[in-house]
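User: Sequence in, structure out. Go.
Assistant: Echoing your sequence, followed by the structure tokens.
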Amino acid sequence: MDFATRLAFIAAGGAFGAVARYLINISPLQNSSSGFPFPTFFINVFGSFLIGLCFILLTDRLDIGDNLRFAVVVGFLGAFTTFSTFELEIWGLFREGKIITSLLYLFLSLFLGFLGLILGIWVARKL
């Protein structure tokens, strides 16, 4: 199939992933008096499980087309949570024996990502 078809599959998967994320965010999980962000936590952990599952099933175990694999992994899971991709990349580095690089990526992504958030908030408040 051509590039436009692949993009259509990714877009369709992304639409379902975005809706799934929204439905979980408005679920009863949101009503926690603790203030802990349970919906996002659930999405990140479950998304990480799903990308691990799909990574093996859709590449090694099941004979499906590339477009369907892209729809699920890039589209659905990409819209559902980018955290799962982040986790998969760390695992890939770890599997390749790049332990220091994987830990550095983990730490720097979390730390600098949080600093980026703070900087973005600061800049927006100055505008």
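User: And one key feature?
Assistant: Residues 99-126 form the longest helix (28 residues).
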